[in-house]
From TrEMBL:
Entry protein name: Rap guanine nucleotide exchange factor like 1
The entry's keywords: Guanine-nucleotide releasing factor
Alphabetized GO MF terms: guanyl-nucleotide exchange factor activity
Recorded superkingdom: Eukaryota
GO cellular component: plasma membrane
Pfam family, one: RasGEF
Any one GO biological process: Ras protein signal transduction
InterPro entries xref list: Ras-like_GEF, Ras_GEF_dom_sf, RASGEF_cat_dom, RASGEF_cat_dom_sf, Ubiquitin-like_domsf
Keyword presence, Coiled coil: no
The gene coding this protein: rapgefl1
Amino acid sequence: DGAMDGVQRKKAVLSVAFRYLDTYRELLQEEGERNNSFPKVTPVVIATVLQVKTLPCNLQELSLVHLCDEEKETRKKQVRPLFRHFRRIDACLQPREAFRGSDEIFCRVYTPDHSYVTIRSRLSCRVGEILALVREKLQYSEDQPVQPGNLILVAVTSAGEKAVFRPSDEAVFTTLGVNTHLFACEPSELDSLLPLPEEIHWSPGDSKLHDMSAEEVANQLVAFDWELFSCVHEVEFMCYVFHGEQARWRPLNLELVLQRCSEVQHWVATEILQCQSLPKRIQLLRKFIKISALCKQQQDLLSFLAVVLGLDNPAVNRLRLTWEGLPGKFKKQFQQFESIADPSRNHKSYRDLITSLRPPLIPFTPLLLKVFFKTLHVNIFFQHKVAEMVRTIRRYRSSQLAMDTETSPSHLQTKAYVRQLQVIDNQNLLFEMSCKLEPKDT
């Protein structure tokens, strides 16, 4: 009987392994090609599902990763511009597809004088490869009569903060913030790097939101969030929770969801603080509260809480005259939304809300990761918690979210606007704008 139990156990392990490979063959194939090894996360997944501490056989010795020729056929390559760094309407209107490290993209890399070269690169390529492409372009550039020397790759934020990448760093493109750009320079030029002029200066003006209905904007936010969330493999969540930034391959699509959350928060603050007219600013405040309510109604908690947190930005929160002009019912509604964002008792209000909802739904992804980080660090039965995380994510996406398929000109205009938000993410600049709108003594 013991021998039979062992056989059944091995069969169960193999069954799970094949199912796992069938689901994630593209990720595994790409990882194997790059590192010539079986992903370390696989034994954890299988042990998680079987709820055992050790595996009865060495999966790394199995020939499971030898996929048939038909499965090895790669999907049709399509070079895409780097996310929000290229403002292309035709690109942003296309449905979002999951990114793989082997996907090729166009990217701009700037020089200290703010000229740039456009390179074509794999999403996952190393910094050393990026610099080699930049160096080759600069050698043939008329704007660069001097041969480039020892180059380094630097990320420069709109606030002027700099991060120097190591030559061995991979997939740095998805680590860039909303208004962060790549610069290539010699080490001696590092201190002279400045943000792009358009990231430093701002011009007041009326928001395009005034001409859009809250319903249409909310529908587009929900549709885009669902596309982004649907692109994230469960393996990316697991890799992020277990390894974070030390992962062998970056959770590309998950990082884009997290960036979107930050982007929406800064969008709310940007639109309100660029509005010079107090009555129009109050209208925007009302519209954003209505948009957050509609996102909550459609069970998009990502944009719902991102809008709420954007309205809670200190630069917006201090606008006393603007908030005093808000009708009482909107103030009361926003207070209710703030209570859901309250982090006390381990975010109990949010957890109660999401427990009460039935799928499909879009969770507030930063908080989803935070909860699992915390439980994994305090719970020795981490394999059970990983299984719980996978089940939770699958439950959220167990059915398709209803989408608005309207194709009117105004619909497409709103769709393009929502997918290419123009935001200011420099908190010092936002606070400066706020003080100009409503000085402290008003």
